[in-house]
Design brief:
Elements: H1 7-10, E1 28-33, H2 40-52, E2 55-61, H3 63-68, H4 77-86, E3 92-96, H5 102-108, E4 113-117, E5 132-136, H6 144-158
Parallel strand pairs: 1-2, 1-4, 2-3, 4-5
Bound molecules: [cytidine-5'-phosphate] glycerylphosphoric acid ester.
[cytidine-5'-phosphate] glycerylphosphoric acid ester binds near residues 33, 119 and 139.
């Protein structure tokens, strides 16, 4: 004889009531840059960071901050953000507006590692009290500066 089950046993458990398995800690990496004339060196850096960490947050320098860095990018901030966001290795994009925002970003995003290319080696060691600081070798043979110089030379050659 099938006894009707009381309703509370038939009800689908409410979301959150099911004890969830403790999820593994997903490691978070953070990197900063201008990413002007987005090129293979930038992509390779993101790819290698994503091979080491579960999540990649990229801080893209605003045009105003670039002026503070003594740089003027060809591609405007909004477009540089859109291109970085479109890269499949990138999980989140934030704005870089000041040199001193890194500690706040590291804490706000629970960052495990601040990762930069080797041209920044030892420049951010002060943040080792907050997270790992990692410098990865740059991709040789390509840079925004070289691309700009190459285009200029070709234009000149056209006379
Ligand atoms: N990069 C690389 N290989 C290249 C060129 C660049 O790995 N051939 C890396 C750089 O080492 C850097 C990143 O790409 O980590 C972004 O480089 P830039 O756009 O030149 O960034 P930069 O203006 O140096 O800004 O607070 C830090 C600054 O915002 C870094």
């Amino acid at each position: 004889m099938n006894l009707p089950l009381p309703a509370h046993l038939l009800a689908r458990p409410a979301m959150g009531s099911v004890p969830r398995q403790p999820t593994e800690h997903r490691t978070v990496a953070l990197t900063y840059g201008t990413y002007d004339l987005f090129h293979i060196g930038h992509v390779r850096l993101f790819e290698r960071i994503r091979q080491r960490y579960d999540r990649l947050i990229v801080a893209v320098s605003t045009d105003q901050f670039n002026a503070i860095k003594g740089k003027q990018s060809v591609v405007p901030f909004e477009d540089r953000v859109a291109m970085v966001k479109a890269c499949r290795y990138v999980d989140e994009v934030i704005a870089e507006e000041a040199w001193n925002q890194k500690p706040r970003d590291i804490r706000a995003f629970g960052v495990d590692a601040l990762v930069m290319g080797s041209d920044w080696t030892d420049r951010f060691n002060e943040f080792k009290t907050l997270c790992d600081v990692v410098y990865l070798p740059r991709t040789e043979g390509v840079s925004t500066t070289e691309l700009k110089a190459d285009v200029l030379a070709r234009v000149k050659a056209l006379g």
